[in-house]
């Protein structure tokens, strides 16, 4: 089969190429899907560079989210049949004509979503759902702060916070253009802050009457750490999803964590067990999936696509992500 491969196993963008790879076969409890579209994620860049440890048994081919049609099912799989239109999550291998995934990681594609829109859902919305709903336990009336607000996961987290009844949702981003885009979304943030020119901790304390936020979803790490701790209210919860600015904070005062009773948790999804992922997906389907529509639909949660590339232009797609130009998901079609 054709697949996007990395010359020498790792390297710069220029090492990405469309080549030939062995077609996978579904094992017991697995489904083989003929891929129509797949999404780009930051972990793909890290993996391409050789800086992302793969979960045991994962394909070395990039990509974790996809949409397509079921081509074959493994032993003891009764839920899915050849020709079913689906979207799904896998531990690797989505940058290819065919991908294998656990049968419980597959969701029926709604007719109102395109292949690209469907493929944009699994990684970002499940990551946001896990971070915000499962771990941070967002509830009605909470004040929420979402960093990297214009990223795919950021937009998903903002909309989920609104859907779960947050009192205020503040998003941070690095440019006026991104903030304006976010504030223009039907279920976008109630407030937005340019973190390069404003102190987001002071901003959220003003908008919450001095209380601070109950929940923070952070991707940035080092540069935001002290302000995040300052921004959190008593009994605040912070889920950390990435360390884009670095992982080491030179000087940390631990006392606020103690006296404010803060709960800080790191989170990953790709390395989780199949059972964990299946339970997460089942809960996501029960609580959120039916509310998702395209950006032109009327759902409380909508898919927002920044740009779609044919897979023959995979280098340009990675270049766009590395440049941090996107507001929404960068997607790729298998053509």
Offer a few descriptive terms:
alpha/beta, 6-stranded parallel β-sheet, 10 helices, 335 residues, 17 strands
Query: For the terminal residues, how far apart are their CA atoms?
Result: 13 Å
Coarse structural class: alpha/beta
- Output mean pLDDT: 97
Biggest sheet character:
7 strands, mixed
**Proportion of β residues?**
25-35%
Tell me how many strands there are. 17
Would you identify the regions where 5 or more consecutive residues have pLDDT less than 50? Answer: none
How many H/I helical runs?
10
Q: What's the overall geometry?
A: globular
* Helix fraction by DSSP (H/I, runs of at least 4): 25-40%
SSE pattern: EEEHEEEEHHEHEHEHEHEHEHEEEHE
Radius of gyration: 20 Å
Description of the structure:
- With 335 residues, this protein is of the alpha/beta class.
- It has 10 helices and 17 strands.
- It has helices at 42-48, 115-119, 122-135, 152-163, 176-183, 200-207, 225-231, 255-259, 274-287, 314-322; strands at 2-6, 16-20, 30-39, 65-73, 85-89, 98-102, 106-108, 143-146, 168-173, 191-194, 213-218, 232-240, 263-266, 292-293, 301-302, 305-310, 329-333.
- α8 links the parallel β12 (232-240) and β13.
- The longest helix is centred in the middle third of the chain and has 14 residues, at 122-135.
- The model has no long low-confidence stretch (mean pLDDT 97).
SSE layout and pairing:
Layout: E1 2-6, E2 16-20, E3 30-39, H1 42-48, E4 65-73, E5 85-89, E6 98-102, E7 106-108, H2 115-119, H3 122-135, E8 143-146, H4 152-163, E9 168-173, H5 176-183, E10 191-194, H6 200-207, E11 213-218, H7 225-231, E12 232-240, H8 255-259, E13 263-266, H9 274-287, E14 292-293, E15 301-302, E16 305-310, H10 314-322, E17 329-333
Parallel strand pairs: 8-9, 8-11, 9-10, 11-12, 12-13, 14-15, 16-17
Antiparallel strand pairs: 1-2, 3-4, 3-6, 3-17, 4-5, 5-7
